Amino acid sequence: QVQLVESGGGAVQAGGSLRLSCAASGRTFSSYAMGWFRQAPGKDREFVAGIRWSGETTYYTDSVEGRFTISRDNAKNAVYLQMNSLKLEDTAVYFCAAVDYYYCSPSVSFFDYWGQGTQVTVSS
Predict the structure, then answer these.
(1) Containing H/E element for 49?
(2) pLDDT digits (tens, 9 = 90+) for 31-78
(3) Strands 78-83 and 58-60: what pairing?
(4) For residue 15, what are the contacts with CB-CB under 8 A and spacing of at least 6?
(5) The three-state (H, E, C) secondary structure of 69-110, written as one string
């Protein structure tokens, strides 16, 4: 089992930045691919960014490419999402997810473990 706890969410004005963190405990974190997803009210959960277990390959959905950066520190069992130039449409609950596989997929069903989520609210 892997336990995931997100932190770093909050309220920010459009154009601002936030850094989300996800602390992992349990099994061998370094062997897991990690992802960030988000869910806005009334919408399906969607993929935001992903990173392979080694950290050498990252993935982004088009809407955040160039603004968000995913990274990981396997020594600290943590994954991060640096969010810059935030937009109103980035408002959502952000979830950290993990899967015991080297590859990262944008599919919700691909991931086995989920955190409880952290709210990000972007205002004008």
Answers:
(1) strand 46-51
(2) 899 999 999 999 999 999 999 988 889 999 999 999 999 999 999 999
(3) unpaired
(4) 85, 86
(5) EEEEECCCCEEEEEECCCCHHHCEEEEEEEECCCCCCCCHHH
